[in-house]
Write a structure and sequence with these properties.
The protein is mostly helical. The chain has ten helices and three strands; from the N terminus they run αβααββααααααα. Helix 1 packs across helix 3 and helix 9 runs antiparallel to helix 10.
Length: 241
């Protein structure tokens, strides 16, 4: 594992777009990359309409690649394509959010356990050092700090990288998870964010201690509280069933 500082590891959240000669993107891939990037940075929000003409002009592509990209994103659950209405960033129903969070409870518990196992077996101490940087941030962060949302988004990517399982990056539904955050974070209060910070600290501490069972339990507690929070949110936080 490369000993690169966290602040330089932007790929933990999402990769920089690449149009290099060695790795050129096709036109549909460029559109997918731009929309994905827009979702992850909050430029596009759930329920927002995507205008084909705006995308073609901004990205310098024809309508064909834009439509192909929208079809792919619709299949991934990021975009909703509606006949005669066009494409919208997906706005999830309460049931869809709950169903995804139930899946995430088991998946993220596995991610935390594998990360703790990797830390325990890493004689170089590099994985532990990376986790300590994040623990230091969560332990000192305030619930209202703008950087918190960015760091929180990257936290699971770090756990996946530390765990070093080749299949988890493709299995983790990162885009849809971020859609949930964008859709619901306005309904979080300061008390809720404070509790989340304490939970991230508990997860990070368990991983750093190299305790797989403690890491898994801390993650499950966090995800169960997410489910409880979703169930208590007002109806306006979700698309109609």
């Amino acid at each position: 594992m490369d000993s690169v500082k966290i602040k330089d590891r932007k790929h933990l959240a999402f990769p920089e777009s690449s149009t290099s000669v060695d790795n050129p993107m096709s036109s549909p891939e460029r559109v997918i990359d731009a929309i994905t990037r827009g979702v992850l940075t909050g430029r596009y929000v759930p329920g927002q309409k995507l205008i084909e003409a705006d995308l073609t002009q901004a990205l310098g592509v024809s309508r064909g690649p834009v439509r192909e990209a929208l079809k792919r994103l619709d299949a991934e659950g990021v975009v909703t394509l509606t006949p005669h209405r066009g494409a919208y960033i997906r706005l999830l129903t309460r049931r869809e959010v709950l169903d995804l969070e139930i899946v995430l409870e088991s998946l993220t518990a596995l991610i935390a356990r594998l990360a703790a196992e990797a830390v325990a077996s890493d004689t170089s101490g590099e994985r532990k050092r990376l986790m300590r940087e994040w623990l230091d941030f969560f332990a000192s962060a305030r619930a209202s700090t703008p950087e918190l949302f960015e760091r929180r988004r990257q936290f699971y990517d770090l756990l996946i990288e530390v765990g070093n399982n080749t299949q988890l990056p493709s299995v983790m539904p990162t885009k849809r998870v971020h859609l949930i955050r964008l859709q619901t974070q306005q309904f979080f209060g300061p008390d809720d964010m404070g509790k989340r910070l304490a939970e991230y600290v508990a997860i990070a501490k368990a991983v750093i201690a190299g305790s797989p069972l403690a890491a898994e339990r801390a993650m499950r507690r966090h995800m169960k509280r997410n489910i409880e929070t979703t169930m208590a949110m007002p109806d306006e936080a979700f698309a109609p069933d």
